[in-house]
Amino acid sequence: MRLTIRDNADQVAAHVADYLVARIRAFDPTPACPFVLGLPTGSSPLGVYRNLVAKFQAGEITFRNVVTFNMDEYVGLPRDHPESYHSFMWTNLFQHIDIPPAQVNILDGNADNLELECQKYEAKIQAVGGIELFLGGIGPDGHIAFNEPGSSLSSRTRAKTLAYDTILANSRFFENDINKVPKLALTVGVGTVMDAREVVIIITGAHKALALAKCIEEGVNHMWTVSAIQNHPLSMIVCDEDATLELHVKTVKYFKSIEMVHEQLIGKDRMSLGGSITSMKGLDKTKLVSGELSPIK
Ligand SMILES: N[C@@H]1[C@@H](O)[C@H](O)[C@@H](COP(=O)(O)O)O[C@@H]1O
């Protein structure tokens, strides 16, 4: 796992957007072999989405051959409610880019049969060959998607009762009235996220500092579901300085030094994969953008 630390949330957003664009371009998706991207909602990815829209408008990236799967959706909230995750995604990303609507997948929290809806979602992910990269955020209690503390680390897409803390945290989107926050949601499971070939998690703000420390300095624990990332073969957390407040100084210095060496190896320009790595024969150069020097398969 890599921990990439930036000064503030804006720099985190810029870094993650650059990274996603580099990964999609290196993948070179086609209609037959699209880039399958898992996406979150919440305030954490907002800056990333703004950057992606700007990059699309500047002609740096197209989403024509990208297929998306969102992490979660409230149950019972009308799809056109301003706080539904459908509305969030169209308002903040999809309506501004060239992704064909048929390639957007978001759980239907108003489906007649919620269990069937979840099963169909998992099947659809399988049918497109699995998720290439799952982008996520976390709650202050370390939950990923709506996998609240105590969720099985091998859980799949399902309906989940929201924890009181999450209801309270999300009441800011519902006029600070907890009675207006849905209490049930559909969510991908921890196992669904961890099955992605790559996982990238955004963690910003001092209120998430404890969760980051629990996630990377302690063991894998279902009470901090994002800690399952420790078992993932290809993952990265991008955080700001505020989120590192509970980490040991040694941990911060360690991950910063790793990044420095990596930058020296590949150069600042992630798309320029020549130069210093020409001697690394047998390594898949496209994987260098993700920081892993994987052997060519
Ligand atoms: N289900 C979502 C999560 O996917 C998200 O990561 C979390 C944090 O949101 P924010 O980024 O606004 O802190 O909120 C909700 O609980």
TrEMBL record:
The protein's name in its UniProt record: Glucosamine-6-phosphate isomerase
One matching Pfam family: Glucosamine_iso
NCBIfam families xref list: nagB
Origin species: Dimargaris cristalligena
Role of this protein: Catalyzes the reversible conversion of alpha-D-glucosamine 6-phosphate (GlcN-6P) into beta-D-fructose 6-phosphate (Fru-6P) and ammonium ion, a regulatory reaction step in de novo uridine diphosphate-N-acetyl-alpha-D-glucosamine (UDP-GlcNAc) biosynthesis via hexosamine pathway.
Organism domain of life: Eukaryota
GO terms assigned for molecular function: glucosamine-6-phosphate deaminase activity; identical protein binding; isomerase activity
Keyword line: Carbohydrate metabolism, Hydrolase, Isomerase
Homology family: Belongs to the glucosamine/galactosamine-6-phosphate isomerase family.
Enzyme Commission code: 3.5.99.6
Lineage: Eukaryota, Fungi, Fungi incertae sedis, Zoopagomycota, Kickxellomycotina
Catalytic activity from the UniProt record: alpha-D-glucosamine 6-phosphate + H2O = beta-D-fructose 6-phosphate + NH4(+)
Domain Glucosamine/galactosamine-6-phosphate isomerase: start-end pairs: 8-230
Gene3D superfamilies from the UniProt entry: 3.40.50.1360
